[in-house]
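Hey Z.,

So I finally got round to the glycine thing we talked about over coffee. Here's the setup:
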Amino acid sequence: MAKTIAFVRSPGPSFNEAISSNLKNQPIDIKRACLQHESYISALKEIGLDVISLPSADEYPDAPFVEDTTVVFDHIALACPNKEKSRRGEGPSIHKEIKKHITMKALPPSANLDGGDVLNTEEKIFVGISSRTNLEAVNSLAKFTTKPVIPVKVIRGLHLKTSVSYLGNNIIVLDPSSIETTSLRTFKWIETNGHAANCLAIGNIVLISKGCTEEADKIRLKGFKTREVDISEFEKADGGLTCLSIILKKI
Ligand code: GLY
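And the result:
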């Protein structure tokens, strides 16, 4: 049976230069980041995913945040035109790997899009209008899917998925103070104001940031299993659990 694939990229020696809103107070410990990244990979493998791990790309400090390079829909992957200049070269080496498994298309350069701004649910796709993603991206994505593509204003935080994650069964985990929530009202909410808002659901298992025990309890009450993963060094650079992989479900 075809397995779900996770594409990841290890942090390199330049990871402590990753873009961050809080680096001055909290320098990144690269050794610790590498160990945390290995644990993240182990968690994905234990869930049953095939993990394709790319070597570090030292010229791109933010390269471990692979999610931002690519959006994956059921039958197609889309290369993201990233707005942030220092991140623009991250895509090609990972796209080369992804193309071996699924058709890839490019979005027009007038669209600015980070994958962290795309929340895909069964019925709809939500796109964060953030410092990295513009309305043109909403229109461009809509050409590749039959689902409605809905813009959501990001009020605080880097990306839409910094503040909201979809678990399945119509349930989201979210920080309602950081995004415009009107279009998310039809979901059942698990509210948080911390790192739990970015969690990674794979089937019935939810990876959640270490220490988010209250939110993990609430997620389990909804019938999911949870597994805490320590990614504190990546959180210092505004990253979360979804940022560290591109998940390709084999159908
Ligand atoms: N540090 C993650 C980003 O700025 O994209």
